[in-house]
Amino acid sequence: MAPEGLPMFGSGQGAQQKSASSGKARSCFGPKFPQWLRKTSIGGLLSLRYAVDWMKMLGGLCLWSLIFVPLPKALSTRIEKISAHRFLTGPKEKPDLRYLKDTSLSALIQERYIDMKQVLEENRASLVKAGMTLDATLDKLKIHAWHIPAPAGRPTVILHHGRGSNMMHMERVMQVFRQKKLGLLLYDYPGFGRSGGIATPEALNKSGVAVSLYAKSSRGLEIPLSQQIHVGNSLGSMVGAYTARVLEQMDDNPLKALVLVNPLPSFKQVFVHIRDRFKLGWLLNEKRIRVDMDGATPLSQLTKTPVHFVRGRNDRYIPLHQVEQMFQSVGSKSASGFYNHPGQKNLVLWDDTHHRLGEKDYHRLAQYVDTVAGGTGFGPEQC
Question: What's the predicted TM-score (pTM) here?
Answer without folding.
Answer: 0.81
